[in-house]
Amino acid sequence: MGKTLFDKLWDRHVVAGKDGEPQLIYVDLQLIHEVTSPQAFDGLRQNKRSVRHPELTFATLDHNVPTEDIFNIQDAISRKQIETLEANCKDFGIRLADLGTKEQGIVHVIGPELGLTQPGMVIVCGDSHTATHGAFGSIGFGIGTSEVEHVLATQTIWQTKPKNMGVHVHGKLPNGVYAKDIILGLIGREGVAFGTGYAVEYYGDTIDSLSMEERMSICNMTIEGGAKYGCIKPDQTTFDYIQGRKYAPADFANAQADWETLYTDSTADYDVIIDVDASQLAPMVSWGTNPGMTGPVDEPFPEIDGDANVQQAYNYIGLQPGQTADQIPITYAFFGSCTNGRLSDLKIAAKILKGKTVDPRVTVLVVPGSRQVKQAAEALGLDQIFKDAGCDWREPGCSACLAMNPDKIPAGEHCASTTNRNFEGRQGAGARTHLASPAMVAYAALNGHFIDIRKVVD
Amino acid sequence: MQAIKKVTSPTVAILKDNIDTGQLVPRTALKATDDNVNYADRLFYGARYLASGAPNPDFPLNDPAHQAAQILVTGENFGCGSSWEHAAWALRDYGFKVVIAKSFNSIFYMNALNNGLLPLTLPVAQWEQLAALPADVQVTVDLAAKTVQLGQQQWPFEIETLWQERLLKGIDDITFTEGYQADIERFEAQK
Ligand code: SF4
């Protein structure tokens, strides 16, 4: 019997351990950021351990950084965390995309952008959205701080091999429906834990037709469906994306020849297959307090049916069963994050906002995912389009995706957001988040509520 | 890491599904930069305290009868969301030794193991009995035997042997992996 893509990737990295038991897996690249790493370095120092492969490690600053003036960190504790990472990288010889440098940005944006993320790799980061990197035909997964320390010390990690799930996405996306809607629609239908214990591979003609940035948006949110790993087989789109990037392999032809062997064999079986007909999808909006509480823009919010979790979600979000997304009073809009803070996302938003002004009731924040995204957007004049429309154009970072820096949505306000999590308090204490695609968020910013964009986009 | 062998304690139930790590610890807890922080007071900060800062009398952890509980009983997909290990640190610092959930997020599961906190699941009927227990009933979790005992009833639970051994001995994962140095070197030589 053949092997799945994930099994091929896994088998290449087993250092020790038997099938069916936890195995020691080799890590090709560890990405690091300031929030989940300080205790790991502290642990190394306390135990007089070193970093086994600093050259396989790359750090960036993203979660805490201010986006107004990136060098003016008002919050002393955030500043200390940033300085701690700077010092740790210096002490242990780790490359750092420091504040204000061309390489700095959100960890899952810069890895691919710099060509660090490559097919065939095992990539870890102390961050749950590391599944993003699976879009390149690699194993990417989020780990805790103890595991960060373990990888720093040993370049390996203990993992139990997950089961295989195939998500077959086929058909042409309708107008106004984007990659984000594929993943939001999947989680809205299957729930926030359907992938627990599985590695998810997305495949099918819809996936084949997507750009790398779109594929990343899908793999990124795999964790919101409970799966640690999401992957897509590498193809010409993947190779074209990587070639010429700073850390792309020097012998590219040789690397590509190897990458071309990374696909699920026709004789391989997934443990579970889920079918998604992309042609039937609508633009999605989340109405509740986890990404599973999501539905098509034109569908009424569900009944409570005695479910205490749903009741609590409605209490928090301030909406009622039976209402629709056009009745959500949007007063904030956020463009950014590792899900939708890339150049193609900003292009989509700018195209919609060009020559228009946002609804006066709506405060709009545009935060590019990285400095390279910011510079590329500025070279295209997108910053001016956003500013002319009444949006705030900021420095790169995680920003209001998780509200660890000054960018927060006030309590009780509804925010249309291109991010990945609508948990209670995610964008600020009491903030009410509604997840959607960049195009949906752009129209929400213009109207002060969501609209069914299938009627307006071409 | 503290070893964990047998825990006999009352339970406390927080019966909500999808408790994400952001509900377990506040943003301020994430800004720590060293290993010596005690996160006990931050655990469940949002639900545990009122806006005034006073304890919320309706929250199970604030029920005086449940103060001694070392076993937390909770719902589906516990520890979902961000990978923040601070959530596991807060549970550990508060004094929990065991979390019995309907299901766990896989990143949280590993974080729990790495901090001497035993995550386990049971079939629904058994879970429901535990979820409804009054505070004066003791439950025994025996990691070596892989059983949960309630009165005369004894139920098995599953855990990978490797994780079980590490928890029983309280060895941290790096020390454990140092035993595999030769395998790592062999792998690197063939790369
Ligand atoms: S953008 Fe949001 S989801 Fe992505 S790494 Fe930053 S905080 Fe996490």
Write a structural description.
- Chain A: Its cofactor is [4Fe-4S] cluster.
- Chain A: Belongs to the aconitase/IPM isomerase family. LeuC type 1 subfamily.
- Chain A: Keywords: 4Fe-4S, Amino-acid biosynthesis, Branched-chain amino acid biosynthesis, Iron, Iron-sulfur, Leucine biosynthesis, Lyase, Metal-binding.
- Chain A: Its EC number is 4.2.1.33.
- Chain A: One of its GO terms (molecular function) is 3-isopropylmalate dehydratase activity.
- The complex is a heterodimer of chains A (458) and B (191).
- Chain A is α/β, with parallel strands linked by helices and 458 residues long.
- Chain A folds into three domains: 155 residues, Aconitase, domain 3 (2-Layer Sandwich); 102 residues, Aconitase, Domain 2 (3-Layer(aba) Sandwich); 172 residues, Aconitase, domain 3.
- Chain A has 16 helices and 19 strands.
- In chain A, the strands form five sheets. A five-stranded parallel sheet of chain A has the order 5-4-3-6-7, sandwiched between helices. A five-stranded parallel sheet of chain A has the order 17-16-15-18-19. In chain A, strands 11-10-9-12 form a four-stranded parallel sheet.
- In chain A, a hairpin with a 6-residue loop joins strand 1 and strand 2.
- The radius of gyration of chain A is 21 Å and the shape is globular.
- Chain A starts with a helix and ends in an 11-residue tail after the last helix.
- Chain B is α/β, with parallel strands linked by helices and 191 residues long.
- Chain B has a domain of 133 residues: Aconitase, domain 4 (Alpha-Beta Barrel).
- Helices cover 30% and strands 16% of the residues of chain B.
- A four-stranded antiparallel sheet of chain B has the order 1-6-7-8, with no helix packed on it. A four-stranded parallel sheet of chain B has the order 2-3-4-5.
- Chain B is globular.
- The interface between A and B is large, with 62 and 49 residues.
- The complex binds iron/sulfur cluster.
- The site of iron/sulfur cluster has 13 residues of chain A, from helix 4 and helix 12.
